[in-house]
């Protein structure tokens, strides 16, 4: 059996030979992050797929991310090393359900979190990520009612932040939804010097904001951010310890970029089984056999691209 170093060497050689680009999400396992040309959140990877010149792209992430790259770069060949790498949040809303919800709220503007299928994006007016969701909501005229899909925790946070009329679809990511306020209390007590970073998809979001407002977070500041937002925050912070409320894959990158600082997962078992389906063996096979190509029917891609480009233009 080949070692990690041997597999990585083979991937690097083949990548160069085929002039391919490897993109990896922040939640990928460390050995996959190490062979990627770009590591980032959904927004950074979507931008990289569109901006880079390579025509063959191996997307180490989940299905909706590869679909997003295929929508933005129809001329490129986008490969997903494991076609079963899905997302419980994206699966919580079908295009039929969205069409039916829209029919009950005519005139409302639909904002879809990027964790949605291409077919759901095609039914939406805007796409957003956790990094720019607030800016997207604020770009919509204030009198407009908004249907936010599919993450209820991110939507509730946006409603609290902006005071806008936002109806929520009751979807959730099972990894982030499992983070509870009791986990926060325990972590704050265990690491009294640490700053506290939390992703807005977390199930404890509303309780945490409430506790923060009433001053029961032991006076510690609360940083609500996307994964790339957390990386930026840590770079600029003078603190040396951080509690990280998101999928544990991000801790590898945080530690690599900040070797002098210490990071503690809010929930050590917050592991996305879909992200972890991508292995070095599968990345190598993907490059060798050019599998599994992700394509989006032109009619769906055209409508989804409109919603995505509106976001990218912000
Ligand atoms: S962490 Fe949650 S939202 Fe992200 S890919 Fe996994 S299931 Fe989907």
Can you tag this structure with a few keywords?
314 residues, alpha/beta, Rossmann fold, 3 domains, 15 helices, globular, binds iron/sulfur cluster
Explain what this protein looks like in three dimensions.
The protein has helices at 4-18, 30-35, 42-51, 63-72, 95-104, 118-122, 133-139, 152-162, 174-177, 181-190, 205-213, 227-236, 250-257, 280-289, 298-312; strands at 20-25, 38-40, 56-60, 77-79, 109-113, 126-128, 146-149, 166-168, 195-198, 222-224, 241-245, 262-265. It is 45% helix and 15% strand. With 314 residues, it is of the alpha/beta class. The strands form three sheets. A four-stranded parallel β-sheet has the order 2-1-3-4, sandwiched between helices. The longest helix has 15 residues, at 4-18. It contains 15 helices and twelve strands. The protein folds into three domains: 4-85 and 275-296, 3-Layer(aba) Sandwich (Rossmann fold); 90-172 and 303-312, Rossmann fold (3-Layer(aba) Sandwich); 179-265, Rossmann fold (3-Layer(aba) Sandwich). It is globular, with a radius of gyration of 20 Å. Residues 62, 87-89, 115, 173, 175-176, 247, 272, 274-275 line the site of iron/sulfur cluster.
